[in-house]
Design brief:
By secondary structure, the chain is α/β, with parallel strands linked by helices. 50% of the residues lie in helices and 12% in strands. It is built from 18 helices and twelve strands. It has helices at 12-24, 38-41, 56-66, 68-78, 92-97, 113-116, 123-129, 141-148, 167-178, 211-232, 238-264, 272-284, 289-309, 331-338, 363-372, 380-394, 410-425, 442-465; strands at residues 9-10, 52-53, 81-86, 102-105, 157-163, 184-188, 200-202, 208-210, 319-324, 341-347, 398-403, 429-433. Strand 3 (81-86), helix 5 (92-97) and strand 4 (102-105) form a beta-alpha-beta unit.
């Protein structure tokens, strides 16, 4: 793409051709850079079926994502302490990264391996053989990843939250411990409304919660800090944790600005897939906190440049869709854009990991409030209220809800979210269920996406007519 050509989505083959041109022109890349096509040779078979943003910033983002396993194995070779943290999505890694020579990652992320490797890794087959069949969430793939020892090194410590968590995940994690993986369990209470005479705290995002629940979480996080300190030989003190929170907030602020620009620009400056990956970096920094900041700064600069120039990767009349829940098959995000839609708001299960962490309280208290703000630990109604408020801010014209196959939390939340969108926002809603590889369902899924986009266009026509 020359400086005068508009940005666009391109295929993997086009990206490799483009990379060769950029490299010949002197493209500066990090150590993990290179053509995206090389990842297919490593087993990432889904990549040739995806469409990618054509910017060097997006190339860096994808290469960063697809080399995390290499970073983790290199960290093991260096003797770095590795913490595998499960289910909390954005809280425990801040404790780990507060210490020198310590990294954290989410084994949960293995739920995308069946998609990216198009089932070739056999992780779901391993899960099936252990009684974790397709009636469970695709996160069951992480059991196979642990047992194969080929997707990430064995962590020095594995943590997992229990209590107000997905039933599937709890069962899968318990089965994992029964197979010989020791797990440090900690309690995540079900967030509730405070009683009238009860002390309260304000959480990131603005919700009010009982102070007693924040106190419980502070004690649990103190136990976690002690356990992480024991395996690393260091101490998570207030000064280190405060410094870690400051860096976490820097990451979150970068992502929030990328989101704001992407959702509010007249033309989408960033495709859905790249936005999803950028948001995911808030959870555990893709095993390299410093590089995460550099990647996001590059991406924000590209998005800002496109917004200022008035260019984007999609048509200006694309339907503005708020997307709830991540999809097991990344390709479906391309299909929304092919159908004429664009992202205009998201809740990919970790909205609390995007909110700034309080800096006006002791560090452990601040982190406890952040953990308590997790939308998945509270009533679905509260999650729906946040989706509603964000949809209004970003001007979403439709709601798309991805049901995750087998996930217990998907049983009724779709109904609550859909009713809210119709009754309070007056926008159309579509629910889709997406397996790890959804090619066979493409006609059904794309028909529903096209119907959602057409409903938006019909609402626009009615609005103009009135």
């Amino acid at each position: 793409m020359s400086a005068t050509e508009p940005p666009r989505r391109i295929t993997l083959a086009e990206w490799d051709e483009r990379h060769a041109v950029l490299a010949a022109d002197g493209l500066s890349e990090p150590s993990y850079g290179g053509p995206l096509g090389r990842h297919v040779e490593a087993g990432d078979l889904r990549l040739p079926r995806l469409l990618f943003d054509d910017s060097p910033a997006a190339l860096r983002l994808w290469n960063f994502l697809l080399t995390e396993e290499e970073r983790l194995f290199a960290a093991r070779d260096r003797g770095t302490t590795i913490v595998g943290t499960m289910k909390d999505l954005g809280t425990v890694p801040i404790l780990a990264y507060a210490l020198p020579d310590t990294v954290a990652f989410y084994p949960d992320g293995a739920w995308w391996i069946p998609c990216v490797m198009e089932l070739s890794a056999g992780l779901l087959d391993v899960a099936d053989s252990l009684g974790l069949d397709e009636s469970f969430c695709p996160v069951r793939a992480m059991v196979g990843a642990f047992l194969s020892d080929g997707h990430f090194p064995t962590p020095d410590l594995v943590t997992c939250s229990v209590g107000a968590v997905c039933d599937d995940f709890s069962a899968i994690a318990q089965r994992l411990q029964g197979l010989g993986v020791p797990i440090f369990w900690w309690e995540a209470p079900a967030r509730r409304e405070p009683d009238p005479d009860e002390g309260t705290v304000t959480l990131p995002g603005g919700r009010i919660a009982p102070a007693a629940q924040a106190d419980l979480l502070r004690e649990e996080l103190a136990r976690l800090a002690s356990a992480i300190g024991s395996v690393s030989g260091e101490v998570v003190d207030d000064a280190r944790l405060a410094a870690g929170i400051a860096v976490a907030n820097r990451v979150r602020n970068l992502i929030r600005e990328i989101r704001r620009l992407t959702f509010t620009a007249p033309r989408a400056p960033l495709p859905a897939l790249e936005l999803l990956i950028a948001e995911m970096l808030a959870i555990h920094y893709c095993s390299d906190r410093d590089e995460t900041i550099a990647v996001l700064e590059d991406l924000l600069a590209e998005v800002s440049r496109r917004v200022e120039a008035g260019v984007g990767v999609l048509d200006e009349d694309a339907a503005r869709v708020f997307w709830v829940n991540p999809v097991a098959d990344l390709r479906v995000m391309n299909w929304l854009e092919d159908a004429g839609g664009r992202l205009c708001g998201t809740d990919f299960l970790f909205a609390h990991a995007l909110d700034p962490i309080p800096t006006d309280a002791p560090p452990l208290d601040a982190l406890a409030r952040t953990a308590l703000a997790d939308p998945m630990t509270g009533p679905t109604r509260q999650r729906a209220e946040r989706v509603r408020d964000d949809a209004r801010v970003f001007g979403a014209e439709a709601l798309l809800i991805s049901r995750i196959p087998g996930a217990s939390h998907c049983a009724r939340e779709g109904l609550v979210l859909a009713d809210m969108a119709r009754d309070e926002l007056g926008i159309p809603v579509v629910e889709i269920e997406v397996p790890p590889v959804s090619d066979a369902l493409r006609p059904t899924i794309t028909t529903r996406l096209e119907a959602l986009v057409e409903a938006v266009r019909e609402n626009r026509r009615k609005g103009r007519a009135s």
